[in-house]
Specification:
With about 100 residues, this protein is an all-alpha fold. It has one domain. It has 6 helices and no strands. Helix 5 runs antiparallel to helix 6. The chain starts with a helix and ends with a helix.
């Protein structure tokens, strides 16, 4: 992950999420700016930033959610298919029919 991409993602995290990332890094014993080196944390941060940017784009540009997801992924230089697949797998693992119906 480039420093620019990291900055874009961090900029979309809420203050409580940024603090949670910093705390997680402290717990792991790594510098806070090295969170992308921890795959699970990187994926969570990417997803949170993508969801927030999606909502911003949807409201600002008046596009559909599907269009906003594409534009948000592009803006963050993330692969849309990977983001959606990770989300789908996580929902499937929870065995929560209510969430699965909302996400499909």
């Amino acid at each position: 992950m480039s420093p620019e991409q990291r900055a874009r993602i961090e900029g979309l995290l809420t203050a409580p999420k940024r603090e949670a990332v910093a705390q997680f890094c402290r717990d792991y014993g790594v510098p806070a700016d090295q969170w992308p080196a921890i795959p699970a944390l990187r994926q969570v941060c990417e997803h949170a930033a993508w969801r927030r940017r999606t909502e911003q784009v949807r409201i600002a540009e008046g596009v559909t959610m599907a269009e906003a997801e594409v534009l948000a992924a592009d803006a963050l230089d993330l692969k849309l298919d990977s983001l959606r697949e990770r989300q789908h797998r996580a929902v499937a693992r929870t065995f929560c029919p209510e969430m699965a119906s909302l996400e499909n």
